[in-house]
Amino acid sequence: MDARALFEILIREHTEMLVAYLRAGVRDRHAVDDLYQETVLTAWKRLEDYDREKPFGPWLRGISGKLMLAYYRKSSRGTTPLDEQALEWLNDRFAAIHSMPGDAFHEKLVALRECIDTLPESYQRPIVMRFKEERGLSEIESLLEITKETLKKRLARGKLRLAECLDRKLGASGASL
Amino acid sequence: MSDPQESKRTALHESWIEALLISVQNREDHSQRVAQAMSQIESIDDDSLEQKKSRATLRRRRFVLPTFGLAATVVFAMVLLFPGSSRSATAAIQRSLDVASERLTRKYVLQIDYRSVAGKSIQIDSELYVQGSDRFVLRHPGLLPGKSLWLGQDGSESWIVPTMGPVVEGDSTVLSRFLSSREELDTPYLHVSTVLKRMMSRGYRLEVLADESVPIPSGVDFECQHIRAELGALGDSELPQTIDLWTSRGSGMAIRLDARWERIVGRAGRESVVIVFDQEEPGLGDEWFRAHTHVDRSRSATDSSQNP
How much is the pTM? Predict the structure, then answer.
């Protein structure tokens, strides 16, 4: 098997994690796609720099982290939501998820499923409807008979509760923000 | 902790959890992403191989160069300047993709040709509005006069405003489910960027053809570079057999895209999707790409047809 075929296997194994990592740092879908392509291309060009004794995932995240910072530097937005400290925080969380049991990235997210189950009903329903049932915001509003503002608040608070719960379960206490 | 820091922390927590909530469902197929990345790598590797070959050829011929004279020098220069048709084609498509990613609203005419189950060849023209690579609106002529079907994507959600009935909103599966139920619209190629990305994907052979002058509906002609992507023998039969791109020599903008399928005689299905640039639409902002804008439009069209 040649180097390119081996590299493709590694990329396939890590794509789910890499896309989630990019999504956590950049909210624009198009930018996530572009940064994914750029990360893989850069990784291939710099494959000689990769230390085979170390895991591939963190090395890939190192490349994509630098590319995300460059993306924010180039973009004309006034505020930059991502910096070195935020990246370190994210890396700690992804490393903690990686240490969880399971082969594929989504299999390692059992702790998140448990956190969803423990959410109060008022936060759990909107989260489940939005992310599991993939319903649109207006549909959820009418099904739950709540206003757009209330829905947005519940989704935001639900996500923050999940973040706190997951942090506790992962024991990811390394970097803080 | 100051407020900006707190809001930054909150935003990061939210986006982190949101990314994980999408992953935990495991509904995404990443194979297209991986294939596109590997195709780029393959094309870069092929190009660098071609460049090495070109340099080797030049080194071998250096000693006999004077005997060829000026004509031969020009040929060698061409080899060095244009090391591969594939490379120029990839660069032209990439340039078009970059232009298509700009946050400008452009209007295209979308023509879908398909063969119905009854064997009838039908052509349907729709208006296509695109902004960047993740927003589009398609106005499709309805079956009843004065009524249009609107569908689109606003960057985060996909939506359908049917001629009658409730508005449907959701993720991209909402659109694909709807499109697959409409034989005349059953195509994923409803966006300029989608077609351009498909041209760059694995399985297509790229070729630069002679430049052409391409007319657009308003009567203006564009001087265009012509790139053809042809599906290899082992390609998926659901993919277009050929995709032709005419890209403006000046701006790099995609002026015309023709995607053609190889159909088995007597079998129903789409035969071609043609997207032709019509005009810039600077007056149409972000709202144009949201469903509610077209709900009103759809309703008013309904009212006017009921009360002529």
Answer: 0.50
